[in-house]
Design goal:
alpha+beta; 2 helices; 222 residues
C-alpha cells in the first residue's frame, strides 16, 4: 500500500502586483543611474577640454621658442593681443600654422621650417562636430578649425603686443583690466557646456571664479 501523500504541481509565476513592484524598482534605479552617467560624461568632456587648452598653449609657446615671435600669419595685431576663435576670426588660421598645413594661403610662410607644433584628432559627427578638427563647413566652425567637446571653437588669445600679459580680450570680469590679466604669453579657453561666461548652474555669473565657486569654463592658465 502506497502511503505517500499525492503530490501537487504548483506553477510559479509573478502576480500583477509583483510585476508592478519590480518595474517600479527598475524605473527608480534607472532614474538614479542616468544622472550619474551624465555627470561622468560631463567630467570626461571637461578633462578632454582641459588637456586640449593646455596642449594648445604649449604649442604656441613652442612656436615662440622656435621663431622668437608668436604665430600671427596675415592677421594684424594692431598693437594689442590677438584673438583667434571668436568675433568672426576663426582659429583655423592659427591651427594651420601650428599643424603646418595650408601654408600657401598666407602671403608669407609663417612656418618656414615646416615644424608640426600641434596634432589633434578629427571631430566626431561632421554635421555637428565636437572635440576635434572640423572637416567641412559646419554650424560652429570652419574647415580646419578646432572645436571643444561641446562643439564651440577654442578661443586663443596671444600676447602679440609682447608685454607678457593677457588683458582686456578675456571675457571674464575677474580677468579684465591691465593689472588683472594673467601674466602669460598665450591664454586658451572654452566656455564649457552652456557656452556662457561663467556658469549660472554653479552660481558664477560673468566670472571664472567667485569665491569658492568655480564656473564650468575651462582655461589654460590655472
Amino acid at each position: 500500500m502506497n502511503s505517500r501523500p499525492p503530490t501537487r504541481n504548483f506553477a510559479l509565476a509573478f502576480t500583477l502586483i509583483e510585476l508592478l513592484v519590480v518595474i517600479t524598482i527598475i524605473a527608480i534605479l534607472m532614474g538614479l543611474l542616468f544622472p550619474a552617467i551624465n555627470i561622468v560624461k560631463e567630467q570626461a568632456r571637461k578633462a578632454e577640454a582641459k588637456a586640449a587648452v593646455t596642449q594648445i598653449a604649449a604649442a604656441v609657446k613652442q612656436y615662440y621658442n622656435e621663431y622668437s615671435k608668436y604665430p600671427q600669419g596675415d592677421v594684424a595685431a594692431d598693437n594689442k593681443d590677438l584673438v583667434y576663435g571668436e568675433g568672426g576670426n576663426s582659429n583655423e588660421k592659427l591651427f594651420n600654422i601650428l599643424r603646418c598645413i595650408g601654408l600657401d594661403t598666407f602671403s608669407a610662410n609663417p612656418n618656414p621650417r615646416r615644424i608640426v607644433f600641434f596634432e589633434g584628432k578629427g571631430a566626431t559627427n561632421p554635421d555637428a562636430p565636437r572635440g576635434g578638427f572640423v572637416a567641412t563647413d559646419a554650424t560652429n566652425g570652419t574647415p580646419n578649425s578646432f572645436v571643444d567637446p561641446w562643439g564651440k571653437q577654442y578661443v586663443v588669445v596671444i600676447d602679440t603686443d609682447y608685454d607678457n600679459q593677457i588683458k582686456t580680450d578675456l571675457p571674464h570680469s575677474d580677468f579684465k583690466g591691465d593689472d588683472k590679466g594673467p601674466r602669460t604669453g598665450v591664454a586658451v579657453y572654452s566656455l564649457g557646456k552652456d557656452g556662457d561666461v561663467g556658469s549660472k548652474k554653479e552660481g558664477v555669473t560673468g566670472k571664472y571664479r567667485d569665491g569658492s565657486k568655480i564656473s564650468d569654463d575651462v582655461i589654460s592658465w590655472q
